[in-house]
Each structure stands twice: as structure tokens, then as C-alpha cells.
Amino acid sequence: MNRNLRLGVLTPSSNTALEPLTSALAACLPGASAHFSRFRVTEIALDAQALGQFDDSKILAAAELLADAKVGVIGWSGTSSGWLGFERDRQLVERIRERTGIVATTAVLALNELLALKGIRRIALVTPYTTDVQQRIVDNYRALGIEVVAERHLGIRVNHDFAGVTPRTLRELMDEVALARPQAIATYCTNLRAAQLAEDFERERGIPLLDTVSTTVWGMVRAAGASPAVIAGWGELFQWA
Q: 103: Cβ–Cβ under 8 A, 6 or more apart, which residues?
């Protein structure tokens, strides 16, 4: 492990959940620290104004600010390519590398890499999103050859409100979709306080929880050439390689 591994995290401006969770995960890595750069995201919807929040120019400007901190890797801790299309994230990480010279990844690219590593083809989704956004995510995974066998969503549009969903509510939704016996469950939004639920849930249900705050950290550590396996107590995904 690089004793000075700085994890640079791109953060939606109205998000309040991912920073404390990411910092707690980084604290499990000797010598690592998490550093954040925001760009404006206030709502999740499919209209032009909401989709425009994810224009690459805004994200790249935030990435350049992280580069000033000489971070070792940059991660987009957001799930927008779930409804915009996975190619958007693949293009984004390449543009970040070209602009900053720093390797990059995203919550969704890391999640999809984890699914491929384990040959997972049946998943369940728990999100705070509206029905149309949720359906777009389901469709994009179907096109990838992955079936969403169960899903729950809360119909919320305001990004700041996602963090107000209680861990108890999230656990109830996770228990509901677990009845479909998916190979993994994804809590698919980085403004949910779900990452810390993984260990207890997996012990009781025997189903991996792939939270997108956690997948971002997993992907960043791997992209930086280090091992995420030292992260304990946050779910079995950190032992996957």
C-alpha cells in the first residue's frame, strides 16, 4: 500500500452521505485519505435540465481541482451512467485521464466489474429514484446481459432528500428484494446510508451487498494499484479480486 494514497472523489453538490462513508472506508487503508470535489447536482430525473447536470465539462472542472491535491486516483462517486448509459462513464474516465494524467474510475464501472468478476447475472436493485429513472437502469442492465430479478424504488427526485432515507428503511427494502434470491443486491445511489449495513445483511441473508459508495472505493483502490482486501467490516466485495 502506498503510504500516501490520496483518493480523489467527485461528489454531487447536494450529497451528504458519501463523504463520511468514503472517509470511514479510507480510514481502513493504512496511509490513505479521501479528498472531495463537488459539482452541481440537485435532482435526479430524465428531463433536459436534470440530465444537463452531468455534462462532462462540469465534471472535468471538478476533476482538475482534485488534481491540484495530487491525488493518486479519481473516482466519480455517482450512478448517473445507470440511466445515461454505461458508455458515458467509460468516456468520462478516459477524458479525466487525458485532462489530468490521473487514472480514474466510477461507482458504476466498478460495480459492473465486480459483477463480471463473479459471473453475476441476476441482481436486485434498491434505489431512491423515480419509476422512469429506475426503468432506464433496469433496461441498461438487461442490455448488458444482467437481469434485475427484483427492485424497489422510493420515487424521490430531490437529490438532497436521498440521504434522509433511514438505514432501517433501506434494510427493509433489501430484505424484500432478497426474497427473489438474486446473486447480489445493489444499493444504487451514493447518497444512501447503506454501505455500513453490508456485513450484518450478508451474514443474515447470504447475499452480497454491492453499495455504490463502496464500489467506488473498491474501484479507486484497485485502479491505484493497491489491494482493497484490508478493508474489513464493510462487506465481502472488498475481498473480491
A: 72, 73, 74, 97, 223, 224
pTM > 0.85: yes
**What domain range includes position 186?**
110-212
Q: Which residues of the chain have pLDDT under 70?
A: 1-3
Angstrom distance (rounded) from CA 30 to CA 38: 25
Amino acid at 11: T
> Looking at residue 198, what is its pLDDT?
98
Using the CB atoms, write b or e for 73-94: b if 16+ within 10 Å. Answer: bbbbbbbbbbbbebebbeebbe
Contacts of 189 (CB under 8 A, 6+ apart): 79, 127, 128, 129, 162, 212
Number of domains in the chain: 2
* Amino acid identity for residue 240 in this structure: W
Q: Which residue has the cell 491505484?
A: 224
Is the same domain home to 11 and 129? no
CA-based radius of gyration for the chain: 16
CA atoms of 167 and 190, how far apart (whole Å): 13
